[in-house]
Amino acid sequence: MKKADKKLKVCFAASSGGHFDQLMMLDPLMDKYDSFILTEKTGYEVSTKNHKTYFLKQINRKEKLWVLNMFQITLKSFWIFMMEGPEAVVCTGVLAMVPMCLLCKLFRKKVIYIESFAKSESPTETGKLLYKFADNFYIQWKKMLDIFPRASYLGGIY
């Protein structure tokens, strides 16, 4: 099979909660590609609508061992990256998803970041970091162009 005949492999990455809810709004887009989801493992059930899903440890940068946890997440993200071989990552944040985004960038794959809908006045820490690396950076509030002038505004994801 020629490369042109295959569907593009895309990683859709988001932490738990609202970031994951925003990511799942892209479900019609996921169906157009050979997609898989990367998210955090939580204590509650999440619906991934039959998409292949990988879970990472939930992380909080205020925890004492967050650096060690981040190292573990980076190793698992690398394993997933090597197993799946995504051509692009679409990410709605946050911290646990940064390693996959940076791995994609390191291996010259496309990084697409969507800043959180909840952030209408100030950026997320992840957004500030990935703005420097993302091939496409989207905001959901027009006034965020003041903070991210190279971003694209297409409206809200909801």
From TrEMBL:
InterPro entries: Oligosacch_biosynth_Alg14. It is found in: Endoplasmic reticulum membrane. Keywords: Endoplasmic reticulum, Membrane, Transmembrane, Transmembrane helix. GO terms for biological process: dolichol-linked oligosaccharide biosynthetic process. It comes from the Bacteria. It is a single-pass membrane protein. The keyword Transmembrane applies. The chain crosses the membrane at residues 65-82, 88-107. One of its GO terms (molecular function) is N-acetylglucosaminyldiphosphodolichol N-acetylglucosaminyltransferase activity. Pfam families: Alg14. This is Oligosaccharide biosynthesis protein Alg14 like protein. It comes from Robinsoniella peoriensis.
